[in-house]
Design brief:
533 residues, alpha/beta, eight-stranded mixed beta sheet, four-stranded antiparallel beta sheet, 16 helices, 19 strands, globular
Length: 533
Amino acid sequence: MKEVNDQPHGFHGASMVLDISGSPQRRQFDNHPIRLPKQLLAMAFVGALLAGASHANAMSGSDRASINQPNIVLIFADDQGWRDVGYQSDGIFLTPNIDRLAAEGMVFTDAYSAAGNCAPSRACLLSGNYTPRHHVYAVGSTERGPAKLRRLIPIPNRSGLAPNVVTLAEALKGAGYVTGHFGKWHLAGKQGALPTQQGFDETYDSFGDGEHPEGTTGNKKGPPEDPKGVFTLTRKACEFIERNKNGPFFCYLPHHAIHGPLQLTPTTRSLMEKHSREKFPSTAYLGCTYDLDSSVGLLLAKLKELDLEKNTLVIYTSDNGATPGSLQEPLRGNKGCYYEGGIREPFVVRWPGVVEAGSKSSVPIILVDLFPTFLAAAGVPVPDGKTLDGENLLPLFKQEGHLERQAIFWHFPGYLNTAVTRGRDPVFRTRPVSVIRKGDWKLHLYHEEWQLDGGREAAVSSNAVELYNLADDIGERSNVAATESEKRDELIGDLLAWFDSTGARLPNQRNPNYDDEARRVADKQAAETTPRK
């Protein structure tokens, strides 16, 4: 049975619906959960499409061209930070193909993943929902790090995206799209489902050493001339595109690169050794990124060869921030935290005739926006009963409007071990935290201090909240929670309302195994061995 969300959209008490033109509308959502069998939900969706999914699946190429449904290609890097592209690194990284894509399309400077690491980010992307709705918060467990150093009992993690969650692939498939997945999945687990159970007609995964079973986890090197399998996965994606060139198709290409272990071709190593200006990032880091970029060039060349460029919406982005192998300065932090370096991503969209070449947007966007955006581009409504937390980005793509929402959110009710660059904590990447960005303002609410040290009344004295004005302080160096009290209280109120609207589970139980003295010792030792900058 597919999930029918009964929570209101955002903190405004409404869910997002799209009409055929993709224009946002508002409707009040029934407060009572509705549970429909998958077959009935599919039938309802067909009715909502007017022409129907069965008709769409039977459409000829000319029929599809007449309604101008674009092909959709989503290239999804693994652990590529905001700075790790040529156009945002002052040339430190060589990514000529991604840079060309940026020159031919629109760059979003303030684009975000919806979580600080892999599995939850992908769950948010494919479900169109924030973490409180699908409960995938982390990879494996939310109890990562020494138990005696954790003050709260974290909210349990769901090991995968539940089979009853309606995905982006299912919604597009119902609208007549052929759907293909090529690469990393990371959403199966005991509580999850495989790509072919979540709307993908085709799926293929490999590190370049032959096909791997559907839903394979882990990461490793590939053959010397196919690092991380970037060329095999791209070739499979290109074959899918060619088979379905009469469209419409949705090609989801989530690479294993540049997640460790880092790998690069021998030729690329020689090039990077000549190019590298300093020892950091390493030759391997730069080269793994360069080979990933080369694979992007192959896919773009295939679209050109097949004369599909004009009617294909291409997006390039990443699942979360970079590892400590690539400093993200001026951004703070790395993968796994909720400072900018952990969640701000490179994001490029190309769609000739719709998106102006060489354009740029600083409007904050987030991965949950892609679900409603792709449906709007395809000209179809949201599946009946499906709540989406994102917003249609077409007005930004076309530079013809603005977004209705006021804020975007993150919720991580657990622990991730291993400190990050300029992190809050010398032991953990993050402790339980929820975050809101509203305009230029960003507030972090840390649940240990909030729950155990006085809540709202002691929010400043307990250091439960951090507030930054990103317009003046993109590096999140100056916490102004004490001086900007009006803005602080406004964002706290918005965040608490969002908790209610999404049914967010908050960690509030003391950990009986917590040892305050052990924490002081661990913090001191960690700070001495890895001093924060």
